[in-house]
Amino acid sequence: MIKRCFCWSALFVTAMSGMAQAETIVFNPPAGSERTYHFEVSMSSGIVKPDGYVDHESFSTLTRFKVAGREGDNRVSLETFPLYFSYSDGPRTVSSALGDFPDDLAKLMREGFVVSLDTESHQITSFAPRGDGEMPGAMRNMISNQLAQPMTPVAITVEENWHTTGKMSGIDNVDITVSKVTPDKVYIRYEGHADDLKMSGLSVVARKTGWVESAVLTVENRSPRGKDKERFLRQTIVMTTAESPYPLPDARFKRDQKWSDMKTGPLPSILAQPDPDLVFPDAPGTVDKYNDILVAEFDHDVGGGFHIGRFAVHDLQLFDQKTALDTAFIADYPGTYAVSDNVSRTMFQARPIGIGDARDNLRKATEMRAKVDWFPASPFTMTLHPNKDGTAHVAQNGASVRLTPTDDGYELLASGKPWDYFAFSFPEGSKVKARFYADDRGPDWLSSEESLARRLAQPNYSAVRIPLKTDKVPAKIDIRVFRYTEDPKVSKEVVFLTKRGARLDPEIEPKLQPLFAEGAPPALGDVTPDGLDLASLRFSLATEQAQYCRAALEKPASLARHDLVFKKTQPDSQPGVTVWEMQTDDGIRQHFYGHDPVTVVLNCDAKIEWQETAVKPDPERPWQIDLEALGTASSMTIAEFNRRFRIVDADGTALALVSPGEAPLSPTDTLASALFEDGHIRAAGRPARILKAVEKDQQVSRRIEARFPDLPEPWEDAQ
Q1: Are 521 and 628 part of one and the same domain?
Q2: Are strands 344-353 and 335-338 parallel, antiparallel or unpaired?
Q3: What is the pLDDT of residues 73-101, one digit of tens each?
Q4: Are 288 and 407 in the same domain?
Q5: Quick one: 606 exposed, middle or buried, by C-beta within 10 A (0-12, 13-18, 19+)?
Q6: How far is residue 66's CA from residue 78's CA, in Å, rounded to a whole number?
Q7: Which residues make beta-bridge pairs with 298?
Q8: Can you give the pTM of this predicted structure?
Q9: Is residue 247 in a domain?
């Protein structure tokens, strides 16, 4: 799969570049010029209903093409460098950036390939590795066979509505149409179908040089598989230059066609543009790793979600403390949503790219820094007032919305400046459903998501087409247009802390982690029996108190000629807790349904009291604890420290210690394992007091009564 997908990326980019070699568009960039292309490909396959299934695969690539020079009048030599490749089938991801590629393939990718293009025949005349590495035979045949396909089926005439046919994607008669011509770009549309194949796509070609700017293509292949079943394979390929500001869609497209309920009632009030200090507060963001993808987010001290504007992120860099790590990333488009009335949050994903193994850098990174651009929103509102036949039009500030009737309802067509975003609302009580498509929608068999991906290669990125399903013509339609500034108002470096970075940063309060995860053991005077609902008898104490205590029945008892005794344990799941459990002396029975009541006597030779020490937590960083001030050596174990000291918060909750590393601290670890670089240990929370265990030479005796339930009847269990 790795090799097959890699070929796809090289083939598609090169083929689309070849398209520009037609009659009046000549692939003629100057020597030394280059383009880097970003590919996202979604593949779904399976059995069509009624009892069908769908498997999803996707891959992502970055490939750099450099013009090496010309070989005569009709040939161009290109050097191609695969920069990154990843493949995912859902739970499993294979990435060139994460050490997943075999050495021979990684070597070939680093060294790149040399491709010779014939600008008249639109074919590749030669293809070979740039270095002296040996290409595996199967890989050579696969790449050579695919790259040897014709670059374009026909020459393209630069004229709007010019049309011809050609062979593409295995279809003989694909309709090829020039949909729009601008001074610097040509927009091309493809539509084709055969018995078991259909395809639809758009592309944009630079008119002067012939470089492809962007392209979107969806292809589906169906084949019979038994009675009333068909097998299908569907691919959507989305490609653009790495410099494109527009986001590439999600690589997993949905094929279903669902209708969405449209909002009713008044639109929310337009928010005032927030102060930049509220948009970029001083607090750092966070970044965490999920399946080898970094998810970063940071908060804004203002509500409203995406109403506050849009963001762009670039120049991502990992750091280990102050040392920069050499891992590059591509980031997806940030999304902003409201957390509360006064807080919004922006989140984005970042994928490591390159050829190598970035996993060690991902593990040891303490922070990621990124340049974040803020484009504030200046929203405005328009209103459509449809006439009786459902026709209406409104335009304002370069934005336009038109409503027209269709055979099965109505349709909205909205367009504006490239980054405009439209929100719609219908009168209260309306029942309106909608689907969203690109303005250049494509054929009906494209899903909404597949169509919206085409915005990347249509003349106006913001333009959308929205079919409506409703019983009657709406009395009015309110439209909120979110217009963003063309240039960022603020560009600022934002720091995103990893979990390791947050642990090591002394300024950040550690997340609360109680010392006793299942609840603190009771004090000596509060001991009560546990487990009686299942006819067992247990009780527990803190280990520092339990070491002075012993338990026995007030009146000896036996069962089946075996004495009843108490077994004393310290469960691994409850560090710092000692448990007594009644059982027969052979250890076989721990449940005593129907047994006579018993009285347990707990005798202790000393009593532990917790007294506040003279060491007070620092008001600024109370979680930092100075061992020297406590008179404690770093050679003491964690278990011994917790028996001698309790670090408690304002609620009286005993706090665990923070581990400087990823692995949690073990009771057998020494305090040296808990020391941070500043020489302190840290409490997991916000300490208010530090207590010390004081042994009181005081005899204490407790009597505990226990009654056991009868053995349930079978019908009771069933109930």
Answers
A1: yes
A2: antiparallel
A3: 778 888 888 899 998 887 788 999 999 98
A4: no
A5: middle
A6: 6
A7: 346
A8: 0.81
A9: no
